[in-house]
Every structure is written in C-alpha cells, then in structure tokens.
C-alpha cells in the first residue's frame, strides 16, 4: 500500500466535507389526532409535502433537548408542549448551502419524540423564514400515513403508527 505524506491530500480528504447536525421532530397527539405541517411551495427540498414540527438544534442557544423541542414547536406552530420520550432515531443528508461550490453536505441525525400538547390552537405566525411552512392540520391517526410525507419521515411515521 502506498504511503501518504503528512498533510498531503489522500483518498479521504478528496471527499466532499460533511457537517453533523442534530434535529428533533415532535409527534404531538391530541384527541386521536396527530399534528402535521405542510411545506410551502418555496421550500427548496420538499415543496407541498407534509411532516411533523421540529428542527435542528441551536447548539449555543438551546439549554437542553427538552428546551430545543419546545422552541422548535413554538416557532413552527405556536404550541406549548410537554416533551415525551424519543421513540425513533434516523438520519438524512442534505446539501450544505453554506458551501455549495465544494459539494459539501450536512448529515442530520434526528430523534422523534412523543409530545403532549399543553395548548392546541396551532398557528404559523411564529415561524422563521427558513421553516417554509404554509399549513398545518390535526389529522386522525388512521389517516396520517396516507399524507404525502417528506421521504425521510415515512419510516418514522410507520414506526409511530405501529406503536400508537
């Protein structure tokens, strides 16, 4: 096997850089209904598709994981929640818009959590422009799997519905 000089580009350094981020998704159920949110037409990855509220951890601002999921749900749908236990872990990759010329990607590792709503009147007024949401709906559990979900959420939804 040929040696590689220290500091010289080798096979691993030739790969596109990957940043790691952590996300949480809230599966909020009230009265036999699950809260889903719809991505707006402006969403760069999944326009018009459905998912559950949640997002990526802000390392310097979120105090802990419960604080993180509460903040995400409040920003996206204006609900107060009581975070419950995680029930599923998964990952996905997405382009890193901070370094598109280099082909950089972000690996997002996510936890799905069952959450109890403290309030139930969902509104989209608090969302950040990067959320790209244009709708939300309380969906009967038996219909939640039939919605056009973002692809990475489909196995998570199956796991959730199988245990609900």
UniProtKB/TrEMBL annotation:
<dbReference type="GO" id="GO:0016787">
    <property type="term" value="F:hydrolase activity"/>
</dbReference>
<dbReference type="Pfam" id="PF00293">
    <property type="entry name" value="NUDIX"/>
</dbReference>
<keyword id="KW-0378">Hydrolase</keyword>
<dbReference type="InterPro" id="IPR000086">
    <property type="entry name" value="NUDIX_hydrolase_dom"/>
</dbReference>
<protein>
    <submittedName>
        <fullName>8-oxo-dGTP pyrophosphatase MutT (NUDIX family)</fullName>
    </submittedName>
</protein>
<dbReference type="InterPro" id="IPR015797">
    <property type="entry name" value="NUDIX_hydrolase-like_dom_sf"/>
</dbReference>
<feature type="domain" description="Nudix hydrolase">
    <location>
        <begin position="17"/>
        <end position="162"/>
    </location>
</feature>
């Amino acid at each position: 096997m040929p040696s590689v000089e220290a500091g010289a580009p080798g096979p691993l350094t030739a790969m596109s850089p990957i940043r790691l981020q952590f996300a949480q998704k809230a599966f909020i159920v009230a009265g036999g209904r699950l809260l889903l949110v719809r991505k707006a037409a402006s969403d760069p990855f999944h326009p018009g598709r459905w998912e559950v509220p949640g997002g990526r951890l802000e390392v310097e601002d979120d105090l802990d994981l419960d604080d993180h999921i509460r903040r995400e749900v409040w920003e996206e749908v204006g609900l107060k929640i009581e975070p419950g236990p995680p029930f599923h872990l998964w990952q996905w990759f997405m382009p890193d818009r901070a370094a598109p010329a280099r082909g950089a990607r972000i690996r997002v590792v996510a936890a799905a959590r069952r959450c109890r709503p403290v309030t139930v009147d969902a509104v989209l007024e608090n969302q950040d422009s990067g959320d790209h949401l244009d709708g939300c709906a309380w969906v009967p559990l038996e219909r939640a799997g039939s919605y056009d979900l973002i692809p990475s959420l489909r196995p998570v939804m199956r796991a959730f519905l199988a245990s609900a």
